[in-house]
Amino acid sequence: MITTASSRPIASTAMCRLRPFTFFALSHPRLARGTVSAARTDWESMMARPCHPNVTCCINPYVVTELTQVGVASAIAEQWELPEPIGLSDPLNPGGTADTWLVTDGEGRRYVAKYAYAGRMIFESGLRVSGHVESTTDLRTGSPLPTPDGRLTTMLRNPIGRPYPLALLRFVEGRAVAPNDGLNVRDAARLLAKVHYSVASYPGRVSDSVANLENESVEVGYEESLGPIIRAAARTLRELDSITLGVNYGHRPEAIVCTDGSTGLIDWGSVNRAPLLWDVMRWSDLFREADDRKTFVDIYRECGPVPACEFEVMDQLAYVRAVHHLRFRAFRVLHSEQHHFTQEHDRTELIRLARQFGVAEFRDGATSA
What is the CA radius of gyration of the chain? Predict the structure, then answer.
């Protein structure tokens, strides 16, 4: 029986170099239509327009280009109606699943712009969870700033014409900490417990990892090699007596010690519905020392919402979680051309995970390993 739980941008004090020019909305009175400056602010056409010959790698949607930054700054000015001029930093973490920039408006207020290479519904579900956690706890989450008409995102086309969502997030000022690097193991366990208690009351929907694992209608490839492993893991999960499902943070902790003394937890792009103990495993595994990993689990067991009896089946849940990752990588490799995933990294991870289950060769897939 499965029950439901009951009741980078890395934002730090490091200085980000602002570009030597500022951006204005197309409607700004200082810009005359038809001038070069005005043309640079036409963000809708700019995002869809082929890149300048001097800008390279435009075929890869993960590569940040000069045109993308111009389009992002102008979109922020127009869609969020911030005081001008808008200052935009160099990318904070170019590549990966999103690009982020530090934004400064004309009155000196700072934000973070996040351009996510994900579907709008999935991206916005994480934004809503971050807002829920911030409104129900004392945590700073970098929650989204809606547009004046209430939208969390606006869609922008990348240089090859694919639309992705852009959000403007509240800036969390402070010092980034992580396991083994400033984040105390006890504080980390209590932080995760606080998040899990908060999301227990979250009313919205998020990506469902359990349903995805059991959904055989979605083609993941390599049926002959991986199909039996995936079905066995889904059966194991169904047979466990009692597992608490809930919203997982789904990511290594992007924690902040804020300048005002409060605690921040940012980057909510990986939230999903899964056994809450998957988050516990994910965070505890980041600590190098075995004693720290044990301490993390023990502290969470004392103060978190998961019943103590579930910790007795962590080995089975770890097995199911590993298979879930295996299925996820297989799906991304199979659909990489359609969705422009980073195939080489996914192939490497797929091979590594599959070998843990004794799979040396892949059959019935788009690519053989």
Answer: 22
- What does residue 170 show for φ and ψ, rounded to 5 degrees? -70, 135
Residue holding tokens 């770890």?
A: 318
Determine which helix (DSSP H) or strand (DSSP E) holds 26, and give its type and residue range.
none
Per-residue b/e over 342-365, b at no fewer than 16 CB within 10 Å? ebeebbebbeebbeebebeebeeb
C-alpha–C-alpha distance, residues 71 and 60, integer Å: 17
Contact criterion met (CB below 8 Å) for 237 and 213: yes
With bands split at pLDDT 50, 70 and 90, how would you rate the model's confidence at 29? very low
Which helix (DSSP H) or strand (DSSP E) does residue 156 occupy? strand 154-157
Residue 272 to residues 198, 206, 208, 209, 292, Cα–Cα distance (Å): 14, 5, 6, 6, 26
pLDDT for position 67: 52
CA-based torsion, 144, 145, 151, 153: positive or negative: negative
Give the pLDDT of residue 69. Answer: 75
- Give residues with Cβ within 8 angstroms of 54, minimum separation 6: none
